[in-house]
Amino acid sequence: MKKQPLIMIVLSASLLFGCGKKVEEQKKGPPATIVTVAKSQVQTVEVLQESVGVIDTDSAPTLSAEVSAKVEQVLADTGDLVKPGQVLAILDKKDLSNALKVAQAEAARIDALLESQRKSTERNRQLAAQNFISPTKLDDSVALLNALEAQLKASRAAQDIASHNLSKIKVVAPVASRVEQRFISKGDYVTPGKPLFLLATSQNLMVRLPFPEGVADQIKPGLTVRLTTPTAPNKSVVGKVQEVRTMVGAANRAFEAIVEVANPGDWKPGASVTAALVVAEHPGAVVVPEASLVLRPAGKVVYVIENDKAMQRLVSVGERIGGVVEITSGLKEGEMVAVDGAGFLTDKAVVKIQNSQSDNSNAEARK
After folding, report:
1. Within the chain, how many helices (H) and strands (E) appear?
2. What is the tens place of the pLDDT at every residue in 236-271?
3. Quick one: average pLDDT of 176-201?
4. Distance between CA atoms of 67 and 161, rounded to whole angstroms?
5. What is the C-alpha separation between 315 and 327, in angstroms, rounded?
6. Domain annotation covers residue 218
7. Does residue 26 lie within any of the structural domains?
8. Contacts (Cβ under 8 Å, ≥6 apart) of 79
């Protein structure tokens, strides 16, 4: 009978210990969520329109034959890079050389006749002054002299033309360029106007960027454009929209923006190009990493870290660019937001900061 009080004491102590443990567990709560954090920052956000276009050349001269002759040599082919004055083809000069000799001989013949007629006319003037010949005969002599002088001018012009034609037997590149197409082969007979070579200059480039009609009100001359091409991935070129044109044959009012740029060195006509047009700028915009933005039933939210707790903040967003998102309302510059792990948070959840953008981030997040 004396053992009963002892048993009661032991049971009471056990109950008290068990209840204390449960109260302690209730006070402790769920474990903290591990997150990384970053400060919201202010920067200028660019509104971009992107397009994939093609590099063209702003100058594509077609070299054509200027004389009639047979092709004797072809010294350039499609794809060749040529320098100014480089000979691309040589035409047979035999017929042109003979034509020059004929013109020279004709000019010499008329010159001799003219010299003789000058002397004859001078004698006739003297005879007419002494009334030994009629004025009519003197007039005929003067008329013949004038005719021969005109013939001499014509023959010398024909001589110049023949000499000029002979100089055209060598087809030369007018500028530094690339042979896009060759239209002739050795032995072909060409006539004036027949295309011989199509050249493409690469010093100045024209980039064509197609856009749908839905963004027509945004694309205007003067906009800044950043260009890259797969043929030279390590180089970026900045240019300006020079012109906006309706695309030929487009049934849906599609249009293209024309951008003229200097070749940075190894960009090639015909290559594709990726463009980002800056259609607007938002200076002083608040931005956060994209990973910090979370979609909840209430809308898009970020979690602001205060005193080791995640405070849910409903925000409005603008542009997304370069891994950051523009916050147009709901957040101020310098506030600390959860980044990695933000998707696992709820409002007022306890957090543990693993690392951040600065050594003082943990302290700042707890203030």
Report:
1. 4, 23
2. 899 999 999 886 554 567 889 999 888 887 787 788
3. 91
4. 11
5. 7
6. yes
7. no
8. 178, 179
The CA dihedral of 326, 328, 332, 334, to the nearest 10 degrees, is 10
Q: Decide if 11 is inside a domain.
A: no
Give the pLDDT score at 4.
54
278/219 Cα distance (integer angstroms): 9
Q: State whether 82 and 183 are in the same domain.
A: yes
CB 36 within 8 A of CB 344: no
- Is the domain of 183 the same as that of 220? no
* End residue of a domain, out of 249, 281, 313: 281
14 exposed, middle or buried (CB, 10 Å; 0-12, 13-18, 19+)? exposed
Q: What SS3 string covers 8-44?
A: HHHHHHHHHHHHHHHHHHHHHCCCCEEECEEECEEEE
151 is written with which tokens? 């013939």
Residue ending a domain, among 254, 281, 308, is: 281
Pair 100, 166: CB distance under 8 Å: yes
Q: Are residues 195 and 316 in the same domain?
A: no
Across all residues in the chain, what is the average pLDDT? 86
Q: Give the domain range for residue 138.
A: 97-158
Q: Are residues 195 and 208 located together in one domain of the fold?
A: no
CB atoms within 10 A of CB 36: 18
The CATH number of whichever domain residue 312 belongs to comes to 2.40.420.20
Domains identified in the chain, total number = 4
Degrees to nearest 5, angle at CA 198 with 196 and 203: 140
pLDDT of residue 362: 45
Q: What is the pLDDT of residues 91-132, one digit of tens each?
A: 999 999 999 999 999 999 999 999 999 999 999 999 989 988
What is the rounded radius of gyration, in angstroms, for the C-alpha atoms of the chain?
A: 45
Q: In CATH, what number is assigned to the domain containing residue 178?
A: 2.40.50.100
**280-298: pLDDT as tens digits:** 999 999 999 999 999 999 9
Percentage helix, strand, coil, to 5, in the chain?
30, 40, 30
CATH number at residue 110: 1.10.287
C-beta separation of 295 from 309 below 8 A = no
